[in-house]
Amino acid sequence: MTSTTAPAVALGTWAWGDSGEVGDGYFGSELTASGLREVAEQALSTGFTLWDTAAVYGMGRSETVLAQALKGYDRGDYQLSTKFTPQIAGDGDDPVADMLEQSLDRLGTDYVDLYWIHNPADVARWTPYLIPLLRSGRVKHVGVSNHNLKEIALADEILGDAGFRVEAVQNHYSVLHRSSERAGILEHCREHDVRFFSYMVLEQGALTGRYSPAHPLPEGSSRAAVYNGMLPRLRALTDRMAAIGDDRGASAADVATAWAIAKGTTPIVGVTKVGHLDGVVRARGIELTGEEIAELEALADAADVDTRGSWEHDMER
């Protein structure tokens, strides 16, 4: 999936793996089948067609719920992106194919447009398993997620020997967490026409401007435990993002997404409500100036917070 064929924004369904019960799930989201169906209908009618999920999101629940939301639409009307996670691999002869088959079954399809190695447990071990999946057509394009520059290069070399290549990279990247940029991964992607997908551009809601010490993230959720203590230090940044948004009829969240687009990446924005799609539309239309980008990055650096996930290793090693 090259820079020219990827959409401006992908839609994330990490939170769709939550059970819907308050306090039960990473995000603490309350989701309904009818509500998510409405999100899918609005997304497709607005031209957002790439959905990102993973076998590990709710241990299959996200894929199942996504398939239900897309039921009845022609398969050519949307693209599916899902992931092989080595940490939950089975012990069969071909764990990657096995996990893909389970994902295909849950997604109700016979191919995925984009398949990822989710975490770099052992690049030399897992990457070769992608080759027969590409040859069979069950996987159209492949990418690597949470890999550093050395690991990306090794995966590309392994695939290259078979006539394929790493076509996409998906890493945590936000104005608060720019390690992939500092490590030269964004530059590598630009030079090799590899699409960089940025996830957690809103830092699980902490950069939306909706939350503050007086109005923290939902108690009992994993994101609350990570971010609520940081909210006082993020205030100057989110206030400035809100002010930039006000001038354009947009929100702080829209500005955070627009920043990721301005940096040449494809943000994966989590959508659980129709209103989230309105924000994605606004973000796509925002053009930040170089001065605004520099100001936001300076405020982010001044906040001095570490939002690296427990599953991520240091990209700058």
From TrEMBL:
Domain NADP-dependent oxidoreductase: 9-300
Pfam families referenced in this protein's UniProt entry, alphabetically: Aldo_ket_red
Keyword Aminoacyl-tRNA synthetase appears in the UniProt entry: no
CDD domains: AKR_unchar (cd19103)
Keyword terms of this UniProt record: Oxidoreductase
Keyword Oxidoreductase on entry: yes
Name of the protein this chain belongs to: Aldo/keto reductase
Natural source organism: Amycolatopsis nalaikhensis
